[in-house]
Write a structure and sequence with these properties.
Number of strands: 12
Number of domains: 1
Structural class: alpha+beta
Radius of gyration: 23 Å
Helix content: 10-25%
Strand content: 25-35%
Number of helices: 1
CATH topology: minor pseudopilin epsh fold
Length: about 220
């Protein structure tokens, strides 16, 4: 009579142990790349909605706003030239149709994108002529965390009918220049690959640039999306 032998308990245990080791190595290897993707997603969301706001403002000849809410809760964030209470989702960037300049209750959210919860967003007010020289955020971070704004974790800017980035939507605003920085919450020079991204907003034209930081070259390089 032919005997059929199965796996012993020891053999099964060895296979499970090897599987556990491989799974752990995969997680450790992929974790930095997952964080990099999330940082890219956050920067791309802000870049895309600001570009969309500029296009819509020029096309429809009216003001549009971009609102960033980095708080962990939904917030009612006041808008210039508006008496309407609009609640913005937690960890999001939103495009707002400001409606008629003479009507202060017709503002509506046109589009909203989520910002990954484990991505930090900072903003720096630039000089009227931002250039390609950036501080090294890994060594001098944060610059100005949105958590220090009011309401906590919020930021608002407006695009006028000519496509310029402004600080008000009532026709009396001035041009604004900002650089937004995106990073992992535990940013560190020893992390690899780099987790830094930046978006520059030029007030005079409403133009935008997307930047990636390369530690090996200790410089920012511009990317076109």
């Amino acid at each position: 009579m032919r005997q059929h032998s199965g796996f012993t308990f020891f053999e099964v245990l060895v296979v499970l142990l090897l599987f556990l080791i491989l799974a752990t190595l995969s997680i450790l290897t992929l974790a930095p790349h997952r964080r990099q993707v999330k940082t890219d997603d956050a920067a791309s969301a802000v870049f895309t909605l600001m570009r969309q706001a500029r296009i819509q403002a020029i096309t429809r000849r009216q003001f549009y706003a971009v609102v960033i809410n980095t708080a962990g809760t939904d917030q009612t964030i006041p808008l210039n030239n508006s008496t309407k209470n609009i609640k913005f989702n937690s960890k999001s960037v939103s495009l707002v149709d400001m409606g008629s300049i003479t009507t202060q209750t017709d503002e509506e959210i046109s589009l909203s994108k989520k910002i990954p919860v484990d991505v930090n967003v900072n903003v720096r007010t630039d000089t009227p002529d931002p250039n390609t020289t950036f501080p090294i955020p890994e060594r001098s971070f944060p610059i100005l965390n949105l958590s220090s704004s009011s309401p906590s974790g919020s930021f608002v800017c407006y695009f006028d009918p000519s496509g310029r980035a402004m600080n008000a939507a009532d026709g009396s605003g001035v041009q604004v220049y900002y650089t937004f920085y995106f990073s992992a919450l535990d940013i560190n020079m020893t992390k690899s690959p780099t987790l830094m991204r930046a978006v520059t907003l030029y007030g005079a034209t409403g133009g935008l640039r997307f930047w990636r930081y390369t530690p090996s070259l200790t410089q920012w390089s511009t990317q076109t999306l």
